[in-house]
Design a protein that fits this description.
- The protein is mostly helical.
- The chain has one domain.
- It has 9 helices and no strands.
- The protein starts with a helix and ends in a 9-residue tail after the last helix.
- Keywords: Membrane, Transmembrane, Transmembrane helix.
Length: about 230
């Protein structure tokens, strides 16, 4: 029985929300109950600034998902997780994908948010958590734990993508930071202003990164990093 992309995307959304909620609750318990620190904010102005940064993180996340397709990206992530879990049961390292036919000549996505960062979803989530740190200071601990998780996840994810694309992923995405809140914000503002496509035409990655039409973005099964 084939599970639809919508169902997989829904399950993936619930898993992400559950992970972030547990991370925030555990961080608050350690920060307040174990360490005895003030939950914050220490000053109302910090909460205002923090709320603004959280808003930027949410906007960056929406920009990334809307630019392509939330269902496509979330369902692809769910497929990767299932592949990783199945591979671990068979003794395969999580960074090595299932590739019966070897690597393939995928078209690497390098436009939109991927012009500026390799992992826009991680960048947006971390931006929101760092902003929340100014509102409730126990989010500092959550941000540190989230950063560690993202470092490990991005390393495994990039190794898998590189293996799937015969090494072209590393070649095309070289020079782009893994996580950069300001870089992602710059891409978002340029696309809103309508100059994003023009800048991507001058990308050193050439024709491999020429923008897809909007309808193709929503249906092309191409590997992209979170």
């Amino acid at each position: 029985m084939t599970v639809s992309r919508e169902i997989k995307a829904g399950v993936m959304t619930l898993l992400i929300l559950a992970f972030l909620a547990v991370l925030a609750l555990v961080s608050r318990w350690i920060w307040v109950s174990v360490l005895g620190f003030h939950p914050g904010p220490l000053h109302p102005a910090l909460a205002v600034v923090g709320g603004f940064i959280v808003g930027l993180g949410v906007a960056e996340l929406l920009y990334t998902y809307i630019y392509f397709s939330p269902i496509l990206m979330l369902s692809n992530t769910m497929d990767d997780i299932l592949d990783i879990v199945a591979g671990m049961f068979m003794g395969r390292p999580p960074w090595r994908p299932t590739a019966p036919g070897g690597c393939k000549d995928y078209r690497i996505v390098a436009e939109g948010p991927y012009r500026c960062v390799r992992h826009p979803v991680y960048t947006a989530a971390l931006t929101a958590f760092l902003g929340a740190t100014l509102v409730k200071h126990y989010f500092l601990l959550a941000s540190i734990l989230l950063s560690i998780a993202y470092i490990l996840l991005s390393a495994a994810e990039e190794a898998r993508l590189n293996a799937k694309t015969c090494g072209r992923y590393k070649e095309i995405m070289a020079g782009k930071p893994s996580i950069s809140p300001l870089g992602l914000l710059r891409c978002m503002l340029r696309d809103i202003a309508g100059v994003g496509n023009a800048s991507s035409q001058h990308s050193p990655t050439g024709s491999l990164t020429s923008p897809l039409p909007r309808d193709m973005r929503r249906h092309a099964a191409i590997p992209v990093g979170m």
